[in-house]
Amino acid sequence: MSSAINPTTILVGEGPAAREIAVEQRPGSAPGLFWLNGFKSDMSGSKALAVDAYGAARGLAVTRFDYSGHGRSGGDFLDGTVSRWLEEALAVFASTEGPQVVLGSSLGGWLALLLNKALRDRGDARVKELILIAPAVDATKDLMNARFSPAERKSLAERGYVERASQYGPEPYVYTRGLLDDGDRHLLFDGVIETGCPVTILQGGKDPDVPQEHALKLVSHLLHDPVTLTLIPDGDHRLSRPEDLQRLQDAIGRAVAG
């Protein structure tokens, strides 16, 4: 029932800001599934592949891509900002057709909300539903900057970046001043968040990176649209265990059928 994946690249930006974005699209029927990775994750991660497998088994179109500085895409990770990655998401979304279920993990959850807002501001209401996994909304302010130690703040002031050890790989996470400052342009918790579509949130109760309180804060800002929050008490940030991936695929099934 599945169609072969079509790997392509999309050029985003101009001049020195131009970068090649690696995209994998599986042709199929609507609604399509549009996947947004987390910070320092790529489109070959277990959740991204679970989304693709769901679409492949049911003949649905699936779109995945790597942000600049991630995976197979061009560009320098240290140049990465929310604005830059949002621009790439919009460019890739423009290559899709028909209604889309947009799924975002961690930072990708924030980008999913920003993508939907930008589209609806343009009169494009093709986002059928948002599925957010441990959504790191306003992460640069609430989940990065607010947690820095005095030593890390000194590093940011003197060196322009902060390095933090990662429990998900050998390389440290690097947070630049450019990323943090740009994030302030995209904060959503300063008012009501209007999505114009249903929102499903999957949240781990033992997530050290995006705590469950953060998901509850998001729910408190979604006042006018249907919201389903599933709290997984023993779930971590990744939510990549077989039972977690099944929950994700079940959520896709409900969104597609809705």
Automatic annotation (TrEMBL):
Keywords: Hydrolase, Transit peptide
InterPro entries, per database record: AB_hydrolase_1, AB_hydrolase_fold, ABHD10_acyl-thioesterase
Catalytic activity from the UniProt record: S-hexadecanoyl-L-cysteinyl-[protein] + H2O = L-cysteinyl-[protein] + hexadecanoate + H(+); mycophenolic acid O-acyl-beta-D-glucuronide + H2O = mycophenolate + D-glucuronate + H(+)
Entry keyword annotation includes Transit peptide: yes
E.C. numbers: 3.1.1.93, 3.1.2.22
Top-rank taxon, per record: Bacteria
GO molecular function: mycophenolic acid acyl-glucuronide esterase activity; palmitoyl-(protein) hydrolase activity
A Pfam family recorded for this sequence: Abhydrolase_6
Function: Acts as an acyl-protein thioesterase that hydrolyzes fatty acids from acylated residues in proteins. Regulates the mitochondrial S-depalmitoylation of the nucleophilic active site residue of peroxiredoxin-5/PRDX5, a key antioxidant protein, therefore modulating mitochondrial antioxidant ability. Also catalyzes the deglucuronidation of mycophenolic acid acyl-glucuronide, an active metabolite of the immunosuppressant drug mycophenolate.
Full protein name: Palmitoyl-protein thioesterase ABHD10, mitochondrial
Organism expressing this protein natively: Paradevosia shaoguanensis
